[in-house]
Amino acid sequence: MLAKRTVFVVIYRYLLGTLEATMGSYAVPENIRKQKPKGTMVKVIKGNYYVYEYTNITDVNGKQHKKMGRLIGSIKEDCGFVPNDHYVHSEDVLTLEYGQYALALANSQDVLEKLQSCFNAVDARRIYTIALIHFVNNFTYMRDLKTHYDMSYLSIKYPNLKMGYGSVAQLYDDLGRRQGPVLKFQQMLINNSTGEVALDGHAIPSTSEENDLAEKGNKYLELGYGQINLMTAYDINTETPLLSKIYEGGNLDKISVSDFFESAEFKDKLFVMDAGFYSTGNVKMFAQDNYYIVPPLPQTKHFQTAMDNQNVDGRFIYRANRKNTVIEYSETKTTDGHRVIKYRDVNLAALSESDFLLRVEEGKYPAYTMERFESIQHTFGVIILQTNLKDKTAKEIYELYKNRWKIETYYNYFKNGLDCRTLHSTDYYKTQGLALL
Question: Sorting pLDDT into bands at 50, 70 and 90, what band is 202?
Answer without folding.
Answer: confident
